[in-house]
Amino acid sequence: MTDHEEKQERIREALAGHPVNPGQNWAVSNDKHKILFCWMQKVGCTFFRQVFINLHREGITEAHPSTLAGKHQKFLEILHSAEWNKVVFYREPLSRFLSGWKDKCRGTRRNYCKHVFGGPNVTCVDAIFLLKDMNPQTLDGHFHPQVQHCNGLTRPILDNIYTMVEELKDHNSTRHAVRKMLQPFELTDEQLERVLSTGEDVHAHATNANTILMQYYQDPQLVGIIVKYFIEDYKVFQIQAPDFAQTALYGLRERNDPYALSDEEMQQLGLPLTPPASTTIHQVDSSSAPGTTADLILLNAALANDSSMDVRGFHVGFVFIGFCFHLYGVGAGWGASLGTVFGGHNLVPNNKNVTG
């Protein structure tokens, strides 16, 4: 059996029993260059669609990126062909969810936020706690698991059908991945720069979520919810959770938190069940919860001001100090109330370190 025949056999085995349902998320170059690209929402999809449009404008491809929706036989032929390059990019789920929330709940497309989370101004914390009870099968494409895109993705399919599977981490890694994908087109440097140029619509979708992850995931429970919800993405794409997220996950297990991952889920992440000796776990005191309706109103009001997210613990604290001074007087209860703010929602860890 030749190498080509062996590859065809591996493709056939990977697709055996797998339903084929071509949807909208496919860009096909043409029969000459033979590139089948699957794009996903919040994985640079606006940028990639623009790249394929630019290829057409350069006269390199015969048509705009076409959809394979309804073209079952053509889609089946391409999937089974060892001659076509199949490309898919993916993103670390904590970053992808945050990017989706910032775009849809803090950008100009607030109807999306209302459609998914029930309101146009839902905070990131509230969105995550709402997400945990949602059905991933019916969730909007900007938020449902990446393995549910591209006609369904499994490890055997990625290993045997796709010729390029890469994680997008930042602007530079994205441009590098696209350059690699476009190699069959044999573009000149000038052509490549024009193809990679993007318009205002692409920049409007950029949220730079990777650079602010720790700012939004200070509460370990938020990390636990997102990782658990998207555990299949981590497993199938073999994604390594960020260091701060790993520390948060060990902290949840240390205190038997309801949002801690199970042993099986930790193994799916490729993490040992006990933290390495170098891991410092920041314990969060959640024993004191906000005790009054006024506490919750003030806390939610402060969190709704997303622009102060990086210092929200201090912001909320000063709001509470003023509130308690007004209600109780200077000497009564402000310290306890401030402790409630910092402890009740696990926003700012205390200084107690436990080395595991």
The stretches of 5 or more residues where confidence is low (pLDDT under 50) are 200-205, 285-356
Q: What is the approximate shape?
A: globular
In terms of DSSP E residues, the strand content is 5-15%
Number of beta strands: 6
- What oligomeric state do these chains adopt? single chain
- Helix share bin: 40-55%
N-to-C span: 53 Å
Coarse structural class: alpha/beta
Q: In order across it, which strands form the biggest sheet?
A: 1-2-3-4
Radius of gyration: 24 Å
Strand-and-helix sequence, N→C?
HEEHHEHHHHEHHHHHHHHEHHHE
GO biological process, one term: carbohydrate biosynthetic process
GO cellular component, one term: Golgi membrane
Pfam families: Sulfotransfer_2
GO molecular function, one term: sulfotransferase activity
Describe, in plain words, how this protein is organized in 3D.
- The structure is a single chain.
- The chain is of the alpha/beta class and 356 residues long.
- Among the domains are: 3-92 and 146-205, no CATH class; 293-355, no CATH class.
- Helices cover 49% and strands 6% of the residues.
- It has 18 helices and 6 strands.
- The chain has helices spanning 3-15, 45-57, 72-80, 93-105, 110-117, 124-131, 155-160, 171-181, 189-196, 200-205, 213-216, 220-229, 231-237, 243-254, 263-268, 293-304, 312-328, 334-344; strands at 26-28, 35-38, 85-90, 164-167, 280-282, 353-355.
- Strands 1-2-3-4 form a 4-stranded mixed β-sheet, covered by helices on one side. A two-stranded antiparallel ribbon has the order 5-6.
- A hairpin with a 6-residue loop joins strand 1 and strand 2.
- Helix 4 packs across helix 5 and helix 6 crosses helix 12.
- It is globular and about 55 Å long.
- The termini are far apart.
- Residues 200-205 and 285-356 have low confidence and may be disordered.
